[in-house]
Amino acid sequence: MNPARRLLLANKSWAQERRSIDPEFFARLANGQQPEFLWISCSDSRVPETQLTVTDAGELFVHRNVANLVRADDRNVLCVLQYAIEALKVHHVIVCGHYGCGGVKAAMTGPPPGRLTEWLEPVADIYQRHRAELDLLPEDERWAKLVELNSVAQVNRLAETDVIQNAWARGQYPYLHAWVYSLPDGLIQPLLTLSPKGPQDLLGT
Ligand SMILES: [Zn+2]
After folding, report:
1. How many angstroms separate the alpha carbon of residue 95 from the centre of ligand 1?
2. Number of domains composing the chain
3. Fewest C-beta atoms under 10 Å: which of 28, 99, 132, 178?
4. Are residues 183 and 114 in the same domain?
5. What's the CA gap between 79 and 85, in Å, rounded?
6. Do residues 22 and 4 both lie within one domain?
7. Per-residue pLDDT tens for 44-81?
8. What is the Å distance from ligand 1's center to 19 Cα?
9. Residues annotated as catalytic (active site), given as ranges
10. Quick one: 55 and 11 in the same domain?
């Protein structure tokens, strides 16, 4: 069977099943969305955000790109952020990196020539800034540590945006979370949470 045809057939049976379980499901979603979360992660096919967080349609507003970057010159992510915060009023923004990220590795080892080189510059910069400590580690640990540093750096960058600064000046949301997802065991590890009051106890938020 044509692989794309397989997706269309799967979609049809999914829609039928959802309707049979909850006849109002699609009508409710068609009326609008009120997601509580903006999810920013890597484009990697192994990080399916709704599956690994057991969330349903309507719960996550999503932006994905190579290496889950929040770049000040990326109008795409900035528009998504502004809409999520100011129109949808999400309460939590999650940047979820993942171990085994090819984009992060490419920034460390030298990406193939082309657009990726430029795209991954912020990760290469993080690597250079932490090179003294990272180069002491075996390659796999160095890669994993850079994945973590990258997620934290993106959350810190989010906190500097005018959208987040304005939101924090208005009230208590959003909370910003840096997480990392582990491909080998499917588990998410929280690394950092920022709120208008500053860094939060991870277990308390
Ligand atoms: Zn990745």
Report:
1. 12
2. 2
3. 132
4. yes
5. 10
6. yes
7. 999 999 999 999 999 999 999 999 999 999 999 999 99
8. 34
9. 42, 44, 46, 98, 101
10. no
